[in-house]
Structure formats: C-alpha cells, structure tokens
Design goal:
By secondary structure, the chain is α/β, with parallel strands linked by helices. It has helices at about 55-65, 80-90, 95, 110-125; strands at about 5-10, 15-20, 25-30, 70-75, 100-105.
Length: about 130
C-alpha cells in the first residue's frame, strides 16, 4: 500500500518508521545489525575524528522501510537524523527529495510520534494550500 506521509524517528541504534494516511498506518522498526553501543567520542591522542563510519546497511534498511511515501519527516535526538538525511542525499536521491523536514525529538512512544507527525504535516499541507 502507498502512504502519503512517513515519519522516521532515528538514533544510532534503531529507527521507527510510521507510514500513514488519513485512515491507516503501518509501523516498522529497524535495528542495527551490529550489537553493542557505538563509540561516538574521540579518544585522546588518536588521529581522526573519532566518529564511526556511517552505517550504510542500517540507512539502506531505513530507506526501504520508508517505501514510497510522498512526504517524509525525520526526527530524533542527536545527530543521527542529519546523518540519515546526508546518506539519503548521497545514496537515495529520489527519497531525499521527499524529505520535508528534520526535527529534534527525544524518545516518544509510537502514538506520540504519530501525533507529532500528523500535526507537522497538517501545518505543511496548510502552508501549501492543501488543507
């Protein structure tokens, strides 16, 4: 089924994707394959940024979960949301073009995430004269 809107909440360990239309929704959860906590801070005295390389497999699974939604909102804590957008820009250009916003959000429940997304898209649709 094709959904009009999708919201993805992402951090470096997992992502929750909710595709939805006016009367239907679909929730997908994507987990990183590699276990354990990623080290994201540089160790003193070592060259380089200390940041792990982007996990392209994880971002590919998130992109697949987003499917063919017409409009996408990316939310989450920290920098994972910007990293996802950058990966989409470089490797999934068609999908990247459907991203309408990136917002910060702590750890909402699926219901809270869906409510946040519906409110966001209602505002976007109103600005476009569609609502």
């Amino acid at each position: 089924m094709s959904y009009q809107h999708a919201v993805v909440w992402i951090d470096h360990q997992h992502a929750t994707v909710i595709d939805f239309s006016v009367d239907d929704q679909h929730v997908a959860v994507v987990e990183r394959v590699e276990g354990g906590q990623r080290q994201v801070h540089r160790k003193s005295g070592l060259p380089g940024s200390g940041k792990p390389a982007p996990d392209h497999h994880f971002y590919d699974e998130v992109a697949a979960a987003l499917g063919d939604a017409r409009e996408i909102l990316i939310v989450g804590p920290g920098v994972a949301k910007q990293e996802l957008k950058k990966d989409l820009d470089l490797r999934h250009k068609a999908l990247a073009g459907r991203v309408v916003g990136i917002e910060s959000a702590d750890h909402p429940s699926s219901g809270q995430l869906l409510a946040m997304a519906k409110k966001y898209f209602k505002r976007i649709d109103a600005l476009r004269g569609e609502g």
